[in-house]
Specification:
This protein has helices at 24-39, 47-64, 66-80, 89-106, 114-121, 125-133, and strands spanning 4-8, 12-16. The protein is mainly α and 148 residues long. The chain has a two-stranded antiparallel ribbon with strand order 1-2. A hairpin with a 3-residue loop joins strand 1 and strand 2. The chain is globular.
Length: 148
């Protein structure tokens, strides 16, 4: 078997030691967000802008939770489809952050249904909507909550 690699945003590809025991959940959750951003080219096309975008996105994830960020991205996308061209890059992320702040002040009340979320993102809605079922949305959809 050849060398396996893991992609890290900060350093790119790095080899994985086969004897290491990897918890797949951080990778699965990171890939979900990457899929969503890449599917709609939300980071934009400017290489420097992409770095800033991904750095700020990770800050939002640490501040709110991946589940909340995924929901906010999906709703911002849906509303953004009314504008041509679609807003991308930091302006898009600013809209996402505004939505997250509003939810934090008023309580998380996304209007998307799980089916709509899945249609827009191509992702299983259970992980994202878990933040609505938890009394503490910050701790929703953590590694180990679901079996693979």
């Amino acid at each position: 078997m050849g060398t396996r690699f893991l992609y890290d945003n900060s350093i790119g590809l790095c080899p994985v030691n086969p004897s290491m025991t990897l918890d797949p959940w951080p990778l699965v959750l990171q890939q979900r967000l990457r899929h969503l951003v890449d599917s709609y080219t939300l980071a934009g096309t400017d290489p420097q802008g992409k770095l800033v975008f991904h750095h700020r996105l990770e800050r939002l994830v640490h501040e709110y939770s991946r589940a909340m960020v995924e929901l906010a991205i999906a709703e911002t996308l849906l509303e953004g489809w009314q504008e041509v061209p679609l807003v991308r890059g930091m302006p898009f992320l600013s809209q996402v952050h505004g939505r997250l702040r509003a939810w934090q002040m008023e309580g998380c009340r996304p209007y998307l249904t799980p089916g709509q979320f899945q249609s827009i993102t191509g992702l299983d809605a259970l992980l994202s909507f878990s933040c609505l079922l938890s009394e503490n949305p910050r701790t929703a959809a953590q590694p180990g909550d679901y079996s693979l």
